[in-house]
């Protein structure tokens, strides 16, 4: 469902747009954004000139996105780190957020996970507007973020790490048996079979296994959206494959995943959708199959890609209406 | 099993190597299927410095043999009971320090807050109108507990190094001790006597021989049953449990240790015609404290959080754990345990004096903790270790004294053992973090 404001916004911003692509707001529903490859994000509606933030109605049909960012902006002092980001995260799909250093990837996920609060714009969770002021607000909704440093206690075993902060207590004692069974089941569901015992300290695990434990912890808390920050950055080939398989398992459990990554090979092997950030602006978002590595690099570095120029430009509105 | 790979292997590691390092670091209880495998895994864990109590016990046995060879009096019943008495207060102060060492902090003040609390206890028990002893004990525990709790609050809230805060606390506690002693015993010359009663009996009186046997048998049977029930329940839930042979060996070792303690305690150690028999009460106090604190650290959320903060405070914070609350609580428990030591120590000496060597006491306590396997970097260690470490320190003191050697070698040898323990701790940490 494309909203009228999508077309309305376009001419107003066209003069300033650095992208030659059709301007499409994230106001389409999740299926649209993912199915129409030519959806490239409007990079620069300036604050105040754009009416869509206030007028845009959220999608009301069944296929609503799990998470919707509407015109989200964030500044640190004079530095504008996020600039009118409008992005849908559909349920059960892997969305890769790519961008060069300083593009605003980290700020974006920190905003979604409640560490920062956006200065402007709205965040909608399952169609409902939410205010994420603390990380707990986000985890309570079902948004779990696995940061690059994983936040694991090396001296504790896998079970203790997976239940850290929400241990089960029975007869005034930790319910070790119950927790161990639950931890084993979660790891088995994620096909994490390489760990020899869930009672070994996390410090003894390989990088991929540690990532798996961190993800399993997020899944066990009934996350609907798991955000992975550079999950493969420090890993070798074998370990990377472990993590990519893990992401596919998450998807198969109908958990939405946002992957922040520099590694375009990884992105292309797991992502259903790709969102490209450049200097705080969303310069492109669409189905992963639509982009090859060169076009992503072009978008990351210049904000445009000639290689995509051939993509059908006009039907953005039309194709949206098909749904 | 690889011998040189510990910790997280570097990227693109061969699977064989990963398995090797896992085996090397996982607790033998959870992955061994037989006694032989258990022993092999355990040996590889020793190289990682995370080996449990057995190396400490082995070291203790070596030192004991040395002193027994040098002086046949060392293993006499009288001396062993004497030794237990010395070890008791070092062990309890060591346990106090474990609470904060596990967080990666230190509390240097407890060497003086403990006698400060005990001074209040003695003051309340002064003859004309002695308060009931439980009340006196309560005050004696509360004073150091609150003192350390406040230090913990300052450390956490103002983010100051605990070393400096508690060093200031040490001076403050000494000042308060002098001040309070002035009021409590104006004409005592800086000393207040512990009047005879329940507290004085901790050392001077013993459990009757028969009761000693009963308590010991009950304790060993209870602990053994607990082990077996836990293993059975784990197996029933399809989880791995230690091999039965290992559990039986552990229970047997506990039984042997219990029998030896009671046998030694029940041997007549009187001089001349007086008959003195039975295990001193203070031994029972230490056993109760170590049991209670082990349960607290090993089986409750609080204990889990103490280890988590010591391992990775940031991870604990992100998991929603209140660092302030856990840290302040751990400092408070450190002070409380120091209060127990203060009363035991006072019972041992029969009085509290402003001349108490608090700085030295606290260093012995840290030594007991570290020798017993508690890491100075936080996150690793057990209460039982502090008791074993306290025993080692006490054996060195007692043995050298028995040999007629003065203070000089006592200090020197304690220093050597402490340095060795810290070196092992640091090397183990370095190996597991850089391998």
Structure write-up:
- The complex is a heterodimer of chains A (323) and B (435).
- Chain A has twelve helices and 14 strands.
- With 323 residues, chain A is of the alpha/beta class.
- In chain A, strand 6 and strand 7 form a beta hairpin.
- Residues 1-62 and 309-323 of chain A have low confidence and may be disordered.
- With 435 residues, chain B is mainly α.
- Chain B has a single domain (53-205, 280-434), classed as ABC transporter involved in vitamin B12 uptake, BtuC.
- Chain B is built from 18 helices and two strands.
- Chain B has helices spanning 15-25, 28-31, 35-46, 54-70, 77-101, 110-124, 133-157, 162-184, 201-204, 209-236, 244-266, 281-299, 301-311, 313-318, 323-349, 358-371, 383-402, 407-434, and strands spanning 191-193, 351-353.
- The radius of gyration of chain B is 23 Å and the shape is globular.
- At the A-B interface, strand 10, helix 7, helix 8 and helix 9 of A face helix 1, helix 2, helix 13 and helix 14 of B.
């Amino acid at each position: 469902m494309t909203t009228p404001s999508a077309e309305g916004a376009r001419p107003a911003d066209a003069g300033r747009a650095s992208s030659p692509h059709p301007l499409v707001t994230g106001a389409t529903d999740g299926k649209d954004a993912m199915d129409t490859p030519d959806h490239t994000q409007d990079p620069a509606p300036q604050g105040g000139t754009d009416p869509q933030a206030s007028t845009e109605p959220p999608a009301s049909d069944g296929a609503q996105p799990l998470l919707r960012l509407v015109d989200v902006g964030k500044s640190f002092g004079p530095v504008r780190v996020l600039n009118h980001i409008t992005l849908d995260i559909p349920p059960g799909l892997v969305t890769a957020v790519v961008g060069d250093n300083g593009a605003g990837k980290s700020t974006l996920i920190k905003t979604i996970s409640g560490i920062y609060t956006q200065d402007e714009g709205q965040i909608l969770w399952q169609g409902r507007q939410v205010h994420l002021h603390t990380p707990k607000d986000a985890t309570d909704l079902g948004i779990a973020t696995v940061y690059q440093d994983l936040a694991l206690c090396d001296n504790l075993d896998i079970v203790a790490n997976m239940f850290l902060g929400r241990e089960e207590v029975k007869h005034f004692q930790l319910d070790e048996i119950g927790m161990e069974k639950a931890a084993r089941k979660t790891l088995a569901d994620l096909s994490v079979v390489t760990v020899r015992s869930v009672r070994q300290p996390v410090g003894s695990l390989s990088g991929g296994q540690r990532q798996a434990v961190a993800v399993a912890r997020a899944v066990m808390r009934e996350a609907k959206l798991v955000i992975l920050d550079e999950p493969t950055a420090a890993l070798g080939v074998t370990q990377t494959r472990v993590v990519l398989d893990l992401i596919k398992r998450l998807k198969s459990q109908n958990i939405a995943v946002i992957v922040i990554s520099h590694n375009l090979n990884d992105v292309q092997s797991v992502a259903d959708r790709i969102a490209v950030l450049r200097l705080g602006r969303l310069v492109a978002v669409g189905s992963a199959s639509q982009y090859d590595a060169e076009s992503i690099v072009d978008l990351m570095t210049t904000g445009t890609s000639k290689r995509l120029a051939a993509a059908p430009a006009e039907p953005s509105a039309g194709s949206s209406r098909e749904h | 099993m690889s011998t040189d790979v510990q910790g997280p292997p570097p990227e693109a590691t061969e699977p064989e190597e990963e398995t090797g390092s896992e085996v090397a670091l996982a607790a033998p209880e959870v992955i061994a299927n037989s006694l032989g495998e258990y022993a092999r895994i355990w040996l590889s864990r020793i190289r990682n410095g995370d080996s449990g109590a057995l190396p400490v016990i082995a070291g203790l046995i070596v030192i004991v043999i040395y002193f027994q060879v040098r002086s046949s009096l060392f293993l006499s019943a009288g001396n062993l009971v004497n030794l237990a008495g010395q070890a008791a207060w070092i062990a309890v102060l060591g346990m106090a320090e474990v609470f904060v060492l596990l967080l990666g902090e230190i509390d240097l003040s407890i060497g003086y807050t403990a006698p400060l609390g005990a001074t209040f206890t003695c003051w309340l028990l002064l003859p004309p109108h002695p308060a009931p002893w439980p009340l006196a004990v309560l005050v004696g525990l509360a004073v150091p507990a609150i003192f350390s709790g406040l230090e913990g609050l300052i450390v956490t809230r103002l983010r100051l190094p605990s070393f400096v805060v508690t060093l200031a606390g040490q001076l403050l506690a000494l000042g308060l001790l002098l001040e309070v002693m002035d009021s409590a015993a104006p004409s005592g010359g800086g000393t207040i006597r512990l009047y005879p009663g329940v507290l004085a009996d901790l050392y001077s009186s013993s459990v009757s021989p028969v009761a000693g046997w009963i308590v010991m048998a009950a304790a060993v049977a209870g602990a053994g049953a607990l082990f077996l029930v836990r293993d059975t329940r784990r197996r029933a839930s399809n989880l791995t449990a230690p091999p039965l042979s290992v559990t039986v060996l552990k229970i047997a070792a506990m039984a042997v240790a219990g029998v030896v303690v009671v046998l030694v305690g029940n041997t007549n150690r009187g001089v001349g015609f007086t008959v003195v028999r039975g295990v001193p009460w203070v031994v029972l106090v230490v056993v109760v404290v170590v049991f209670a604190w082990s349960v607290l650290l090993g089986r409750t959320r609080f204990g889990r959080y103490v280890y988590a903060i010591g391992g990775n405070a940031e991870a604990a914070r992100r998991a929603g754990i209140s660092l302030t609350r856990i840290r302040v609580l751990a400092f408070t428990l450190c002070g409380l345990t120091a209060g127990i030591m203060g009363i035991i120590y006072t019972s041992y000496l029969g009085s509290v004096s402003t001349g108490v060597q608090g700085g030295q006491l606290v260093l012995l306590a840290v030594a007991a903790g570290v020798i017993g396997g508690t890491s100075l970097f936080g996150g690793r260690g057990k209460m039982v270790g502090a008791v074993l470490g306290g025993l080692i320190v006490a054996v060195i003191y007692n043995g050298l004294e028995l040999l007629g050697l003065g203070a000089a070698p006592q200090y020197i040898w304690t220093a050597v053992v402490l340095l060795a323990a810290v070196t092992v701790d640091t090397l183990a940490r370095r190996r597991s973090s850089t391998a």
